Amino acid sequence: MPIYAYRCESCGFAKDVLQKMSDAPLTECPECGRPTFKKQLTAAGFQLKGSGWYATDFKGGGSKSPAADSATKSDSTSASASDSAGKSGGDAGGGCGGSCACH
């Protein structure tokens, strides 16, 4: 249940009230009894705790674009595949022909 902040426009009395969202707003001030008790607009009251996704998933990345990362990965895969093919003499076991990155 949310906590709502109320303030009386007549006497200035302020109070935080735990209410259901479906409950009618309070109008009568518990201090002076006048019908000038109004709900105030306040900032959300929550706090994020823990390491969070930003610290574990994307830490330190962000300077490169995703397109640059994929181009670099495909270049390095191609280079290691041709190095493997050259070292094995073109005949890699398993029937792959030495053109894959597994050798």
- The neighbouring-strand order within the major sheet is 2-1-3
**End-to-end Cα distance:** 61 Å
Low-confidence stretches: none
The radius of gyration computed from the alpha-carbon positions, rounded to a whole number of angstroms, is 33 Å
Number of helices: 2
Classification by helices and strands: alpha+beta
β-strand percent reads 5-15%
Verbal overview:
The chain is α+β, with helices and mostly antiparallel strands and 103 residues long. The protein contains 2 helices and 3 strands; from the N terminus they run E-E-E-H-H. It has helices at 52-56, 66-87; strands at residues 3-8, 14-18, 37-39. A 3-stranded antiparallel sheet has the order 2-1-3, with no helix packed on it. The longest helix has 22 residues, at 66-87.
List the topology elements.
Blueprint: E1 3-8, E2 14-18, E3 37-39, H1 52-56, H2 66-87
Name its key features:
single chain, about 100 residues, alpha+beta, three-stranded antiparallel beta sheet, 2 helices
Short précis:
26% of the residues lie in helices and 14% in strands.
